[in-house]
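Weekly modeling sync, notes
Attendees: S.R. (lead), two postdocs, one rotation student

Agenda item 3: backlog of single-chain predictions. S.R. asked that every request posted to the team notebook include the full sequence so nobody has to chase files. The rotation student volunteered to paste the first one in as an example of the format we agreed on. Action items at the bottom.

Example entry:
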Amino acid sequence: MQIPSDAILLRILVGESDRCGSQPLYQAIVLKARELNLAGATVLRGPMGFGQSSRLHTAKILDLSNDLPFVIEIVDAEDKINAFLPILDGMMASGLVTLEKVKIIQYGTNAKA
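Predicted structure, as returned to the notebook:
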């Protein structure tokens, strides 16, 4: 798969307890991105965070949260990301979605190395 050097980073912030049907929202997003042949997706789990409610979510033992923050990052060409946004909107009831322009330096393996 070839993606242009000028691309878009789609960053999605959700809670661990957010759902899409019967599965975790972060998982549903990644599986849908894969189904639509986006270049790739990564899920990062945060040990601490807060959102619009200002309620603190933390992984500390004494204050164990069942709703830790998750960040899903997807990078691809602008047209492919823009086509994914309406689908994403239909999957999410809450969360934060951002877009950034990025420059791709390397994607995949480096045959020269």
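Discussion: group reviewed the output briefly. The chain has one domain: 6-103.
Action items: rotation student to repeat for the remaining queue; S.R. to check formatting next week.
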